[in-house]
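@channel sequence for tomorrow's demo:
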Amino acid sequence: GTDFDTLIGHLTIERSDGTTSPREELTVATVLRTGQPVQKSLVYVHPDGSRVPVLVSTLPLGRDSNGEFDSVVSVVQDRRELEGALSELREWERRYDAVVESTGQVVYDWDAGSHVMHWSGSVETVLGYRQDEIQGACEIWRSHIHPEDLPGVLAELKACHRDPARKFDATYRFRHADGGWR
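structure tokens (generated this afternoon):
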């Protein structure tokens, strides 16, 4: 009651959509009600009108054999620095994409962990595909390589996996959206 009001009673707390978050939706109240950990992105609006985007992570502590807990811990992370860094990263990605596209080249990146290919550059101009048509699993890339070229490409790929310092270097034909080969 009183400690909770003293701690945050002077703040207005909003959901990420800009609507005011009622107290019963706050993470501490939710953990007290459910006994389960909660994480939410919120905005603290101070009395002076300044707004602070935060990530609030709250969990119960000190559970006994009956599952009852005797305390709650809440960690509030200021997201302003993170959001600024993400904005800067998006701007650099936009610039990179513009530079690659201006070269008339196609660039792809294969995430070996997830086996997802990310395409950028002049994909539509060179290969005839919108990025969203070709983006995704490496099987899409593999299925578009000319059958006569595929064994050599796969051998080069395996060599790169064995030696991470090796640069992938393969020349192969790729099926254009019109059915021809480039």
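heads up for whoever presents: The chain has a mean pLDDT of 84.
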